[in-house]
Design goal:
about 350 residues; alpha/beta; eight-stranded parallel beta sheet; 20 strands; binds pyridoxal-5'-phosphate
Length: about 350
């Protein structure tokens, strides 16, 4: 039994509650889950296990190694980056590609077709075949489960959202696809006409909030770090690399087993906060690779070996750090022991 000095507390009830909320917002559409990047850093297998139990049936990963890692759970997985030649040989039975390019469509046809999904670009110019090519018959005869597109600005109120929705809806009768799917987390919050047959939330499952409809979304992941050393710093002394912090008065400092190598990046230097109970413990000086110093005068009882929680509510922490809510989660490193409750 290992016992890391760094752990990521993961709230399984909040995860499932968030999925229920997004499912309800999806109206009559099925609600899937994006679990790429190891479930946004939380651990894809643990996320999938909980969401399957809640009733989720459609999962999305980026690449085939992520699908293979879920193969034994037996859920339906769509691989968003489609198939290269190198992917064709080792594909788990429960996974299908999301074909993204004309070349991938050709490759899939030559291999005999079979169930697939297709991504069509409706204006983001990131990934997907052209809507005009689809309208011209590119996909005719393919056994498509889900035709997808992706919104570029779903977290903003811009005309492009409705334009993309209309372009996508225009393809409804144009393919053999059993289902249509457009909305990510923010897209779900745009209203029921964005839900089509299947929604694909990711960040909101894990505590991300981008729109008012996400207000009921709860935080899932909270980093906790153990105190490695507690020390007294005298007025005028400095703390940390490059002496960016000078103690204005005698103060108590704790040094945490947490640093930028864990994803707690240097933008939290002098800005981040830890908590012990109700006490707020500000980060002081520079975050280093494996260590972070906090002021602990507000928590006199804290000692070496005690644990503190790191403030990590996603919207607030994104605003504080300048990182996106996505980066905050996917950057969390492998030294965290992931502990579910
Ligand atoms: C990552 C991803 C999602 C999920 O997006 P969120 O913004 O995290 O909800 C949905 N669809 C596609 C194609 C994606 O790449």
């Amino acid at each position: 039994m290992t016992c890391s000095p760094l752990r990521l507390k993961l709230d399984g009830d909040a995860l499932v509650g968030n999925w229920h909320l997004l499912r309800d917002l999806s109206g009559g559409a099925a609600c899937g889950a994006a679990v790429k990047a190891d479930g946004y850093g939380l651990g894809a297998r643990e996320v999938v296990r909980r969401l399957v139990e809640a009733g989720c049936r459609d999962f999305f990963v980026a690449v085939w190694s992520e699908a293979r890692a879920l193969a034994d759970i037996g859920v339906s997985v769509s691989v968003l980056h489609g198939v290269r030649d190198a992917d064709m040989a080792d594909r788990p039975a429960n996974a299908r590609p999301v074909l993204d390019t004309v070349e991938q469509v050709r490759r899939w046809r030559e291999a005999g077709g079979g169930a697939c999904d297709v991504m069509v670009d409706t204006g983001m110019n990131r990934l997907g075949v052209a809507a005009e090519d689809v309208a011209a018959g590119l996909l005719d005869g393919l056994a498509i489960d889900t035709l997808m597109s992706h919104l570029a600005c779903a977290d903003e109120d811009v005309p492009l959202n409705a334009q993309q929705r209309a372009a996508f809806a225009g393809l409804r009768e144009r393919t053999s696809a059993k289902r249509m799917s457009l909305a990510n987390s923010a897209g779900i919050a745009l209203g029921s006409d964005y839900a089509f047959d299947l929604t694909r939330p990711g960040i909101a499952l894990y505590g991300g909030r981008q729109r008012a409809a996400h207000d009921g979304i709860r935080q899932v992941a909270t980093p906790e770090a153990q105190i490695l050393q507690r020390r007294r710093v005298r007025a005028g002394e400095i703390v940390g690399y490059n002496a960016t912090f000078t103690a204005p008065a005698h103060m108590e400092v704790a040094v945490l087993n947490l640093g930028y190598a864990d994803g707690y990046l240097r933008c939290f230097s002098g800005r981040g906060r830890a908590r012990a109970g109700d006490a707020v413990l500000p980060v002081i000086g520079r975050v280093s690779m494996d260590l972070t110093a906090i002021a602990v005068d507000a928590a006199p009882g804290l000692a070496e070996g005690d644990w503190v929680a790191i403030d990590y509510a996603l919207p607030e922490t994104a605003a504080l750090s300048g990182l996106s809510q996505y980066e905050l989660l996917t950057g969390l490193g492998s030294r965290f022991e992931r502990v579910w409750s």
